[in-house]
Fold:
Amino acid sequence: MPGDPRAPAALCEGLVRIYWSRSGEVHALKGVDAVVPAGRLTAVTGPSGSGKSSLLRVLAAQDRPTAGRAEVAGESLAGMSARRLRAVRRRHVGYVFPRPAANLVPHLTGREHLAMAARLRGVPRARAAREGGELLDLLGIADRAGHLPGQLSGGEQQRLAFALAVIGGPALVVADEPTGELDSQTTAELLTAVRALTRAGTTVVLATHDPLAAAAADQVVHLRSGTVAHEEVAGQRLAVIDGDGRVQLPEEALRRFPDRRVRIDVTPDGVVLREPS
Structure:
């Protein structure tokens, strides 16, 4: 990604996403604040209906924000035309679908898949061949380069899907439940491969219900009812303070405040939240 290497690959501030249906408005995201650090693995978790897929669609430049701010590779998505969104997706975003076979074309070998993906991203042929070989080697499937998807296991298909998403160096790789159809052993192998990609500089954000995938992440963003309930970074659980000073608390903490009122004590060591007396 051009520019400051310390800049986030993507970010959201006050992100709102509303869908309209026959039954009325659906508020899928209600003011989400999140940062996707470059070169890291970020997991987005939460129960069904929490907004995971909606957040991924915005980060993948498939949907525009209804309100608030969303940026990918330093480009604001608000107000973008459909044509411009397609350009952002092609240049800056790689995408991995949940079903391994859905990412692949049945009649193309792994090597041919990579050549096609590189061509779509405008990567010169010589560079594409070099990068493709390096990616297959890094992901542990170099010996499968000449095989068709039907000759690969589900885990090998998904590793090839990540190679297709990464070739050409997009700013962000978005993966929707990439381990959902894999057993625990194959999941562990895939996550090891994904961590190898992030160590090489790739930024990955994935939505998941899988505790193995969440445990492998550098950062976990937990959604609840369209908002960020909390984050987990380096073993710490962090509450999020939005731009208006509102704090989202984890579910177990919220249960201590059934009246939604909290006593705030500012001490020399920090800020303490207590049940009202």
Remarks:
- The longest strand covers residues 24-36.
- Residues 10-245 form a domain with the Rossmann fold fold (CATH 3.40.50.300).
